[in-house]
Design a protein that fits this description.
The protein folds into 2 domains: 185 residues, Rossmann fold (3-Layer(aba) Sandwich); 188 residues, Dihydrodipicolinate Reductase, domain 2 (2-Layer Sandwich). Strand 4, helix 5 and strand 5 form a beta-alpha-beta unit. The protein starts with 13 loop residues before the first helix and ends in a 30-residue tail after the last helix. Helix content is 35%, strand content 19%. Helix 2 packs across helix 12, helix 5 packs parallel to helix 6 and helix 6 packs antiparallel against helix 13. It is globular. The longest helix has 20 residues. The protein is of the alpha/beta class. The strands form 2 sheets. A 9-stranded mixed sheet has the order 14-13-12-11-7-10-9-8-15. Strands 3-2-1-4-5-6 form a 6-stranded parallel sheet, sandwiched between helices.
């Protein structure tokens, strides 16, 4: 998720140095030295691609992460979203002085990201709907930008494979790729998982990951919207854009399970459907999923998620081992064996920490690369969707090697993909 910055008045100036090192890297596959950013007086320029609520939040956190950083470029598919984000950020006292995005650096449309990559920004925040993450990530690393990539990082296996390849290239270039799977940046979770890895529960044989919540927003279709306008405005409800909500949202706690277990399962089986969210305005995603993942050693993860009104909510993760059990959740971090340990220390906001560590790494020349777990945890969620959509048992290899590509034929304001609602037992495993 970058490489170029402001002149400093030195001779040669930093821009010339960066251009030179970039050319050397392209010619000889040498890593681009992160240390060119180390001087605290150098302004790190940031671009935001995807100006929704999460994007605005990420931009604020990026601007707070370093004393000498500026937001200089913004891009979105929609002009009104960009302007709302820019206005919102400009009204935040702590960051207002770090925003310099004139009209000529505001880019709109499906190809706006290309103009961002051609600019002199150093860090790119990728917060569009998940479908676009592999495309934007690849372009960012090719353009030598450091990256913050929101979760999930793909909606299908070809996208996951692309991300894995791109992150390997980022590592070769010494470019940072920090994931929006923010729970891994929470100090309380880090301490809890460390204790579990150190054997606090003994061998862990079972985990549960729940995401029971109510419905979310819907944007009524306007008269002048094409199908693509409508789907892009309501991206959450279309599998090709969001991956379905078990991928878009539940990936957080699926990632916690893979973190605790330090690995990924060999197969999955599950069920799901549309029980209450049946209207056409809800696109083609399900409103509930239940998946059982099985590991090579017999360990199982029971994953359940639901978005239905007037039901009990529960967003939590639990681990069960030979010595007892643990709650590994935002509301409770606790390990119960013959004794009880509870994490009670105040911690810094995990959304802020991920940006703090990203920018600190850039300054120190030590790149962070979350590529492996952000890609594989995304595939873990996609694997679950494949199981619920088809009703079939899905192996990890089948998921990783799947040829199902949800991309539209073209990115333009007109027709949009018209994928049918999945029917378990009828929908094919591809």
């Amino acid at each position: 998720m970058n490489e170029s910055q402001d002149k400093t008045g030195t001779s040669p100036n930093r821009r010339q140095f960066i251009q030179t090192t970039a050319s050397l890297a392209a010619a000889s596959t040498l890593a681009i030295p992160g240390s060119v950013h180390a001087a605290g007086s150098d302004v790190l320029k940031v671009a935001l691609i995807g100006c929704g609520g999460r994007g605005s939040g990420a931009a604020k956190q990026a601007l707070l992460a370093d004393k000498n950083v500026k937001l200089t470029v913004m891009a979105d598919a929609f002009e009104d979203r960009l302007q709302l984000s820019l206005n919102t950020l400009s009204e935040i006292e702590e960051v207002a002085g770090k925003i310099d995005v004139p009209k000529e650096r505001q880019f709109i449309g499906f190809d706006a990201y290309k103009q961002v990559m051609a600019s002199d920004v150093d860090v790119v925040l990728l917060t569009t709907p998940p479908h676009f993450r592999p495309i934007h990530l690849k372009a960012a690393i090719e353009a030598n930008k450091h990256v913050f990539a929101e979760k999930p990082v793909a909606v299908d296996a070809p996208g996951v494979r692309s991300v894995i390849e791109t992150c390997a290239e980022a590592k070769r270039k010494n470019l940072s790729v920090v994931s929006g799977l923010c729970i891994r940046y929470d100090a309380g979770f880090r301490e809890t998982v460390k204790r579990l890895h150190d054997g606090a529960l003994g061998d862990i044989h079972t985990m549960m990951a729940n995401d029971y919540r109510g419905p979310i927003w819907v944007k009524p279709r306007q008269q002048d919207w094409t199908d693509m306008h409508w789907q892009m405005r309501n991206w959450y409800y279309f599998t090709w854009l969001s991956g379905d909500f078990n991928v878009e949202q539940h990936v957080h706690y699926l990632d916690v399970c893979s973190w605790v277990l330090d690995g990924y399962p060999k197969k999955a089986i599950g069920m799901g459907g549309r029980q209450v969210r049946t209207d056409a305005k809800y696109g083609n995603i399900f409103d509930h999923h239940s998946v059982t993942y099985e590991y090579e050693n017999g360990t199982r993860v029971f994953s359940n998620c639901r978005q239905q009104a007037n039901c009990k909510n529960d967003i939590s993760c639990h681990a069960f081992g030979a010595k007892g059990y643990a709650s590994v959740s935002e509301r409770l971090l606790e390990i119960r064996t013959e004794s009880k340990w509870t994490h009670r220390d105040p911690v810094k906001n995990m959304y802020q920490v991920e940006h703090d560590e990203l920018f600190a790494g850039i300054r120190s020349g030590t790149s962070l690369n979350n590529g492996e777990y952000m890609a594989k945890s995304t595939l873990l969620a996609i694997m679950g969707r494949m199981a619920t959509y088809t009703g079939k048992e899905v192996t990890w290899d089948q998921a990783m090697n799947s040829t199902e590509d949800l991309s539209p034929q073209k990115y333009a304001w007109g027709d949009a993909p018209n994928y049918p609602i999945a029917l378990p037992g009828v929908t094919k495993l591809v």
